[in-house]
Amino acid sequence: MAEGDFRIGLNEVQVGIQMPPLILIALRRLVGPRQAEHMAVGGELVSVQEALRIGLVDAVAPADQVVNRALEWCQHLLALPPEAMLGTRREARADLCALFEEDTESELREVTATWWRTETQNTLRALADRLRKKS
Predict the structure, then answer these.
(1) For 46-85, how does the pLDDT look when each residue is reduced to its tens digit (9 = 90+)?
(2) DSSP classification of residue 53
(3) What is d(CA 23, CA 95) in angstroms, rounded to the nearest whole number?
(4) Model-level pTM?
(5) Residue 115 pLDDT > 90, yes or no?
(6) Among 8, 6, 7, 12, which residue's Cα sits nearest to residue 24?
(7) What are the CA-CA distances from residue 134 to residues 11, 30, 128, 129, 131 (Å)?
(8) Is 43 in contact with 18 (CB distance < 8 Å)?
(9) pLDDT tens digit string along 12-49?
(10) Which residues are CB-neighbours of 4 under 8 A, at least 6 positions away?
(11) 3-class SS at 32?
(12) Within the chain, what is the greatest distance between any pair of CA atoms?
């Protein structure tokens, strides 16, 4: 993530959308159950340093070096013995990958439906109005 006055998170609740269960599970896996609940329920966006501290991002770099740092990380992985690296990575992420192998069609329909609820549309309109006034 780029250094600076930036924030990152999942602000679905702030804009009137229920957090999709699959995304919440992935967030919980990444930052832990208590931090995930706190971030998701409040739609909290965290600072760069907080994102690094809780494990939401792996590294922080000056903005003009973010892409190069990401490429260096990828090159490092590609330089490792591929079967060992890929097999280990597959095992380390097996729980997360399994979630995407399940039938998520009903979850997708439910999440999509939340976009069209009156509360969600009102919240999104109010947000759009606030953003329009800022620009």
Answers:
(1) 999 999 999 999 999 999 999 999 999 999 999 999 999 9
(2) H
(3) 13
(4) 0.79
(5) no
(6) 12
(7) 19, 33, 10, 9, 5
(8) no
(9) 998 888 888 889 999 999 999 999 999 999 999 999 99
(10) 48, 63
(11) coil
(12) 54
Residue with tokens 């809780």: 54
Contact call for residues 7 and 55 (beta carbons, < 8 A): no
The residue ranges of every structural domain in the chain are 7-106
* CB burial readout 60-96, b (16+ within 10 A) else e: beeeeeeeebeeeeeeeeeeeeeeeeeeeeeeeeeee
| CATH fold group of domain 7-106 | 2-enoyl-CoA Hydratase; Chain A, domain 1 (3.90.226)
Amino acid letter for position 44: E
The tokens describing 16, both together, are 């009137």
Query: CA–CA separation, 100 vs 9, rounded Å?
Result: 21
- Would you tell me how many other CB atoms lie within 10 Å of the CB of residue 16? 20
